Amino acid sequence: MLSCDEHGIVTGFSYHDGFLDGVLVSDDGTAARFAVRSIEGVRRILTLRGVVSLHLDGFRQGNIVGYMWLLRGDQASANLEVRRLLIEELGRPALPEATLAFVIDTSYGANVIAICATAEISEPGVTLDAASSY
After folding, report:
1. For residue 45, how many C-alpha atoms fall within 13 Å in the half-sphere facing its CB?
2. First CA to last CA across the chain, in angstroms?
3. What angle do CA 47, 51, 53 make, to 5 degrees?
4. Which of 4, 13, 88, 95 has its CA 20 to 30 A from that of 73?
5. What is the C-alpha to C-alpha distance for residues 101 and 30, in angstroms, rounded to an integer?
6. CA-to-CA distance for 14 and 36, rounded, in angstroms?
């Protein structure tokens, strides 16, 4: 499971100013994997399961990650920026408390917002090539 601070900002591994290198969505759309690479070059896979909605736009070579958030439904509604994204990109002004909102905010390239059940991060060194099954 991803760890977060009291504001829902993802913590526990280095990603700020790192890269979003790839995205893989399961055939049924209920799982998504994001290849992330720290500025030091450490690769990991961030996996969302129980995906209900996913919006990704602006994907380019060299997507630079600013921040990641993982918020419970009540936290997402209270965060003005995340709530705006939920409404504008997913048409969802509110979420059930048991649901999670996941956001990748980049300073360059792709931005991501998703509604999911769980989120986890791999150990260092895992790539999309090695992460074969859902």
Report:
1. 20
2. 16
3. 125
4. 13
5. 14
6. 10
Nearest to 113 by CA among 72, 59, 53, 65: 53
Distance CA 57, CA 106 (A): 11
Positive or negative: CA dihedral 16, 107, 74, 44: negative
Backbone angles phi, psi at 67, to 5 degrees: -135, 160
The pLDDT, as a whole number, for residue 134 is 44
Q: Tell me the pLDDT of the chain (134 aa) as tens digits.
A: 889 999 999 999 999 999 999 999 999 999 999 999 999 999 999 999 999 999 999 999 999 999 999 999 989 988 999 999 999 999 998 898 789 999 999 999 999 999 999 999 999 998 887 555 54
Tokens of 91: 């048409």
pTM of the predicted protein model: 0.91
Give every strand in the sheet of 63-72, ordered side by side.
Answer: 53-57, 111-116, 100-108, 63-72, 19-25, 31-37, 43-49, 118-121
